[in-house]
Design a protein that fits this description.
about 170 residues, alpha+beta, two-stranded antiparallel ribbon, about 20% helix
């Protein structure tokens, strides 16, 4: 039994193992939880360093990666979509022009920062707890910026798939 009083069998060990192999290219998650933290918040902090996020998959807790998927898991078209619409998202008033990501310098243990895009005059501050690798922090900042710039259109529709659900992150 681990945190949250959930049995270990409810943790998707295959997905966690895949996450571990992807994250083995850098020094991982280095953080000390020194106060009581909700299980879900702790999992989000751990996963965030590698662009993963925790997801409920049926009765299991799994992890999904924010990355292109190699295989299509479901297909939607006119035969199973009702009321489809395209939604657009625009910058809010007084939007920031970049991200300043805080990480921990592995040599000194002090806070260090990366800025993306370079030369941002009014960046949004984001703390990346557990990150002690400049390259990982830089990649995270670039990913935040890319999401802000390129994820501006969303599709919304109603469907009846008779109990078939698309996995979160698919």
């Amino acid at each position: 039994v681990y945190g949250g009083r959930r049995p270990a069998a409810e943790l998707d060990s295959g997905a966690v193992s895949d996450m571990e192999s992807v994250l083995s290219s850098h020094n991982g998650f280095n953080f000390r939880f020194d106060s009581r933290t909700a299980l879900w918040d702790a999992m989000q902090a751990i996963c965030r360093v590698g662009d993963y996020y925790p997801v409920p998959q049926g009765s299991e807790i799994s992890v999904a990666r924010d990355a292109p998927q190699d295989v299509d898991l479901m297909a939607f078209g006119v035969h199973n979509m009702i009321d489809a619409e395209i939604l657009s998202q625009f910058d809010r008033v007084n939007a920031t022009d970049g991200y300043r990501v805080q990480y921990t310098n592995p040599t000194t243990g002090l806070d260090a920062y990366v800025l993306y895009p370079p030369g941002s005059a009014d960046p949004e501050d984001v703390a990346l707890d557990g990150c002690t690798d400049r390259g990982t922090a830089q990649s995270f900042a670039e990913g935040l910026w890319a999401r802000q710039q390129y994820r501006r259109q969303y599709l919304s529709w109603t469907t009846e798939l008779e109990g078939h659900l698309a996995p979160i992150g698919a």
